[in-house]
TrEMBL record:
Compartment(s) of residence: Membrane
Membrane topology: Multi-pass membrane protein
The protein, known as: Proto-oncogene Mas
Record-annotated membrane-spanning stretches: 26-49, 61-86, 98-120, 126-155
Organism per entry: Pygoscelis adeliae (Adelie penguin)
Length: 178
């Protein structure tokens, strides 16, 4: 989903008129549904193949996940965010919601900082298994899973002398469209 959000925001900045006038209205919903379906299928495969005793094929499923992560999702996320960053730095910041781009940047940054090590460790487990490192990677992945709401609240309350109001107000402030 981070890849889809990053690519969609990049397309929205590069071709704003196409996005407003010609982009199919259900495109985001369809893409999110397909990505959730893919995630469910892959999680089901990992559970069925790796956890239910079919371990002879577990390496193929985990290898496929690593391949998708490193060769497809991560490069698209990096490329779209780099393009977005360059485009926004060259244009005036007044036309864009700086908070939304800050949230996207921080979410992607923390994904690479906390989420990718687990994928790297799973890939390295094919060659050598180090229990302590794997547990640290699991901890980092847990931090990655729980950091997004913190990012939303902090960015939503940014610029205020102190946080006033509810979490709902902070979230509305992050995602409001000016």
């Amino acid at each position: 989903l981070l890849t889809a959000i990053s690519v969609e925001r990049c397309v929205g900045v590069l071709w704003p008129f196409w996005c407003r006038c010609r982009r199919p209205k259900l495109l985001s919903a369809i893409m999110c549904s397909l990505l959730w379906a893919l995630a469910c299928v892959l999680a089901g495969l990992v559970y069925f193949v790796c956890d239910l005793g079919h371990s002879e094929h577990c390496w193929m499923v985990l290898g496929t996940l690593c391949f998708l992560n490193f060769c497809f999702f991560s490069p698209f996320m990096v490329l779209s965010n780099v393009i977005l960053f360059i485009k926004l730095r060259r244009s005036s910041w007044q036309h864009h919601s700086a908070r939304l781009y800050t949230v996207i940047f921080l979410t992607v940054f923390f994904f690479f900082l906390f989420g990718i090590p687990l994928s790297v460790q799973i890939f390295l487990n094919f060659f050598v298994y180090i229990n302590f490192v794997f547990e640290i990677c699991l901890l980092l992945a847990s931090v990655n899973s729980s950091i997004n709401p913190v990012i939303y609240v902090l960015v939503g309350s940014c610029g205020k002398s102190r946080f006033r109001g509810s979490v709902k107000v902070a979230l509305q402030r992050v995602f409001e469209d000016r």
